[in-house]
Amino acid sequence: MRALFDTNVLASAFLTEGLCARLLRRANRREFDLFISPAISKEFEEALKIKIGLSAEEVQAALACRAEFIVTGDRDLLGLKEFQRIKIFAPREFELQSKFGDSVHVPRIHQARLL
Fold first, then answer.
1. Which residues does residue 33 pair with via DSSP β-bridges, in sequence order?
2. Residue-number span of the structural domain to which 75 is assigned
3. Burial class (CB in 10 A: 0-12, 13-18, 19+), 88
4. Which residue from 21, 32, 94, 111 has the least number of CB within 10 angstroms?
């Protein structure tokens, strides 16, 4: 099965937890082939930038790696507090949140695979 999502469906998929988000997850699981045109891709990226202050690449990376946190200094983005169940923290907040007592936690840095 092949489908093309318009910009409104894509934006809803990223900004809400409703039907459009479920459809996007199904496409990600390869239950059907999802297509977008270059024009839809550009319009979607502009819509995300306006609505949430993140580029499409940043959103895709956060979702693809199943990030629990987005760490940013962007005040507008920090005002959201959360996006798609991903907490949005300032660097200092994240530092305080991620401390593990006296133990040393060495982070692994992974390359996010885009959808």
1. 2
2. 53-115
3. buried
4. 111
pLDDT in 10s for each residue of the chain, 115 residues: 889 898 888 888 887 778 988 898 898 898 888 888 888 888 888 887 777 777 777 877 888 788 888 888 888 788 888 888 888 888 888 878 766 443 334 445 445 555 5
On whether both 76 and 99 belong to a single domain, the answer is yes
Query: If you ran DSSP here, which 8-state letter would residue 31 be given?
Result: S
Triad 56, 57, 63: Cα angle to 5°? 90
Same-domain check for residues 106 and 72: yes
**Bridge partner list, 3:** 34
Which amino acid does the sequence have at 59? V
Measure the CA–CA gap between 25 and 97, rounded to whole angstroms.
Answer: 29
Which amino acid appears at position 90 of this protein?
A: A
Q: Token digits for 94?
A: 């994240």
Residues 73 and 112 in one domain: yes
